[in-house]
Amino acid sequence: MFAALNKAFGDLRDPMLRKSLYAIAAWSLGFFIVLMIVLFGGIGAWNPGVWVENQASWLPSWMDWLVNALAAIVVFMTWIALVWFGFVVVSQNVAAFYFDSIVERVEELHYGDLPKAKGTTIAADVISTIRFTCVLLLLNMLALPFYLLGMFFPPVSLIMFYLVNGYLFGREYAETVTLRRMPPEQAAAWRKANGTKVWLAGALIAFGMTVPILNFLGPVIAASFMTHIFHANRPGNLPARG
Q: Is the pTM for the entire model greater than 0.90?
């Protein structure tokens, strides 16, 4: 596991992979800025502070102050979460169109004994990206009560975050790598057989997405990382798909 991660960081020395990294970071930052302008513009127009104050106006003054203070904390934490989560969603959507070329390059550098794998199509990338984004949003919305509870008991939100997103990122990157060389049934069987490794890899990827600067490198490192995990545990005499 850590040998694969070390190789993934080492792969950043390759000019072609660095080119993908710069492109993903630039596009992600641009889309993220637009998203934040729209998102916070909408929140500002709604003005949640005034809304809460109006709803709590009938309460005694001391309780009204308490409700407004708690609301301010919740709004502040929500803004932080939206900034972080927004960048993760944007960067993953942008990176999805580079994953195939990243994995192909890593295989060229380290696994030249294998025949060239069949790449993905733009349509397949779009469908995969939409599906991943929807599942990511849905499961994290379902986990939102645990995240809010984490404001008072941080371990609760951390455990839930890594359980949910470790699974999601692990599955997404494993599919990106395995489906290039396996039919869906075999790819699913490989994920099941290596479930713990895939989840741990996904949890490390999710952690990397929470670290400033590292989250810009995240998609390229993650794709390379999962590629090395796959080839370290791949079936013998693996043929190229298609």
A: no
